[in-house]
Amino acid sequence: MAAMTTTLAIANQKGGVAKTTTVASLGAALAEAGHKVLLVDLDPQACLTFSLGIDPEDLDASVHHVLTKGLDAREVIIATDDGVDLLPATIELARAEADLLTRTGREQVLKGVLEDLKEAGVDYDWVLLDCPPSLGVLTVAALTAARGVLVPLQCETLSHRGVGQLLDTVHDVRRFTNRRLEVWGVLPTLYDGRTNHARKVLDTISEVYELDVFEPPIPKTIKFAEAPAAGRSILATSKTSKGAAAYREVAKALVARAAR
Ligand SMILES: Nc1ncnc2c1ncn2[C@@H]1O[C@H](COP(=O)(O)OP(=O)(O)OP(=O)(O)O)[C@@H](O)[C@H]1O
Ligand SMILES: [Mg+2]
């Protein structure tokens, strides 16, 4: 029997809240724990691809060709040093938004790609989708393909407004393209535990929007800035750091959530 795959979109239209770092780190943590993991880079900036040690300039084909030209994902997926597989992006993905806009079924395009993989016998325990910082076609396609959405959130004032917009989009996706989509919760990132402020913002957001909060918060540490340059996640570059430990804990919580 084919394994159960859990597809999780990591989304927040706000830029720089650690979506990509979270995808790379949770992916590595899940792989460490013995899970088979696919990461999908859905951002034309290709930061996830870069951070896993792959130069998009060296790629002949990428997720763009899979989504818009029907190329088999198996021809594009790369095994990385972090023990996860990657469906990489290049700047060409910037055109996908426009290319897909006029297409029937564009919301379903990523879901179809993942189903094709499964039918071809390529099975993953986890598929993590790194969304771009917008609520455009690519994010909607990710939410349509996903079972859950995890929202990285930097706990600062005004984080609220963005969450409301994201939840509106989730609501639409649930109505029109993916009834089973669930908001798994918020992951506090870039967390500075020395301030009461961060804790307050977090409490407010979880109350106002009735969202679960994953623990522990991911601490703000310089180690994260160094990892992408090494082409590895913080779990490899800084194995015993607090940040790596936090992501391992959150990965455990996700595994428990998936079994629910
Ligand atoms: N816990 C952390 N501590 C310190 N720096 C961090 C932490 N997490 C992420 N960063 C840094 O913050 C910056 C933004 O992170 P990242 O690229 O993961 O965010 P993002 O939400 O994917 O951004 P974008 O919206 O542009 O895609 C990066 O320079 C990253 O190295
Ligand atoms: Mg990113």
From TrEMBL:
Pfam families for this protein: AAA_31
Protein name: Cobyrinic acid a,c-diamide synthase
Domain of life: Bacteria
Signal peptide start and end residues: none
CDD domains listed in its UniProt record: ParAB_family
Provenance organism: Nocardioides phosphati
AAA domain location: 6-183
